[in-house]
C-alpha cells in the first residue's frame, strides 16, 4: 500500500483543483458556436466574479496577512497601471489582433497571475490539517470553473483558434500547479508578505480588466444580441 504524507496528498488536491479550470474550456469547446447572448452573459458573469474575488478574497487575505492599508492601495494602483501600460503599448505598437483579442490575453494574464499564489492554498492548508485542505481544494475547484470559462469565452468571442483558446486556459491551469509545486519543494520560497503583495497586485489587474475590458465588451455583445433578436 502506498503511504503518502500530507505534503503529497495536498499537492494532489491542489492539482485536481487546478485542473477544474479546464472544465471552463471543455464547456466552451463542446458548445463551439456560442450565441451573442451567451457570450455577453459569460463576459458579464466573469467580470462580476473577478471583481468579487478581488474584493472579498484577495484584498481581505492580503490584509489578514499583515499588509497595511497604504501598501494595499499602492499595489492595487500598480495593478491598474500594469493593465493601462499594456493597453497603451499594444495600441502604440499596433499589435496584431482585434481589441477583443487583446482583452482576452489580458484576462488570461490576470487569472494566470492570480492562480500562482492560489495554487499554494490547498497544499499549505492540507499540510497543517488534511480535512481543512480538502475543503479548501473543493472551494478552489468550484471557483476555478468560471475562471476557465472567462478565459475561454473571451478568447472565442475574439475569434481565436481552438488551439489558442486551449493554450490560454492551460497557462492559467499550469500556473496554479506551479504554485503548489513551489510549496511542495520549497515552502520557504514565498513569504506571506510577498504573497500578499502579489495578491493585491493581481486584484488591481483583475479590477481593471473587468471594468475596462469585460464589462464594455459584455454590454456591447448584449446590445448586439438584442438587436439581432428584434430583427429575427
Radius of gyration (Å): 18 Å
Mean pLDDT, all residues: 80
**What is the approximate shape?**
globular
Q: What sequence of helices (H) and strands (E) makes up the elements?
A: HHHHHHHH
As a percent range, the share of strand residues is: under 5%
Kindly state the number of beta strands: 0
Ends: how far apart? 63 Å
**Backbone structural class:** mainly alpha
Which percent bin holds the helix content? over 70%
Helix count, per DSSP? 8
Low-confidence stretches: none
Query: Main beta sheet: strand number and arrangement?
Result: none
Structural description of this entry:
The chain has 232 residues and is mainly α. It has helices at residues 6-19, 21-31, 36-65, 69-92, 99-128, 130-157, 162-185, 192-231. α1 runs antiparallel to α5, α2 (21-31) runs parallel beside α6 and α3 runs antiparallel to α8.
List the helices and strands and how they pair.
Layout: H1 6-19, H2 21-31, H3 36-65, H4 69-92, H5 99-128, H6 130-157, H7 162-185, H8 192-231
Helix pairs in contact: 1-5, 1-6, 1-7, 2-6, 2-7, 3-6, 3-8, 4-8, 5-6, 5-7, 5-8, 6-7
Annotation keywords:
single chain; 232 residues
Outline of the structure:
This protein is mainly alpha-helical.
Amino acid at each position: 500500500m502506498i503511504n503518502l504524507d500530507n505534503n503529497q496528498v495536498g499537492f494532489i488536491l491542489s492539482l485536481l483543483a487546478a485542473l477544474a479550470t479546464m472544465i471552463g474550456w471543455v464547456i466552451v469547446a463542446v458548445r463551439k458556436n456560442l450565441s451573442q447572448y451567451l457570450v455577453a452573459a459569460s463576459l458579464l458573469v466573469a467580470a462580476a466574479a473577478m471583481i468579487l474575488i478581488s474584493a472579498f478574497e484577495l484584498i481581505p487575505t492580503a490584509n489578514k496577512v499583515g499588509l497595511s492599508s497604504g501598501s494595499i492601495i499602492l499595489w492595487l494602483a500598480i495593478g491598474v497601471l500594469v493593465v493601462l501600460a499594456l493597453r497603451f503599448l499594444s495600441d502604440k505598437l499596433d499589435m496584431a489582433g482585434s481589441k477583443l483579442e487583446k482583452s482576452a490575453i489580458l484576462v488570461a494574464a490576470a487569472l494566470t497571475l492570480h492562480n500562482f499564489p492560489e495554487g499554494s492554498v490547498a497544499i499549505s492548508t492540507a499540510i497543517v490539517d488534511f480535512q481543512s485542505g480538502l475543503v479548501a481544494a473543493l472551494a478552489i475547484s468550484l471557483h476555478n470553473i468560471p475562471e476557465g470559462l472567462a478565459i475561454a469565452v473571451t478568447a472565442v468571442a475574439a475569434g481565436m483558434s481552438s488551439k489558442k483558446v486551449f493554450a490560454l486556459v492551460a497557462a492559467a491551469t499550469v500556473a496554479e500547479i506551479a504554485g503548489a509545486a513551489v510549496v511542495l519543494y520549497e515552502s520557504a520560497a514565498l513569504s506571506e508578505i510577498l504573497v500578499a503583495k502579489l495578491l493585491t497586485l493581481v486584484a488591481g489587474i483583475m479590477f481593471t480588466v473587468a471594468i475596462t475590458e469585460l464589462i464594455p465588451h459584455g454590454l456591447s455583445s448584449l446590445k448586439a444580441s438584442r438587436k439581432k433578436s428584434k430583427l429575427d
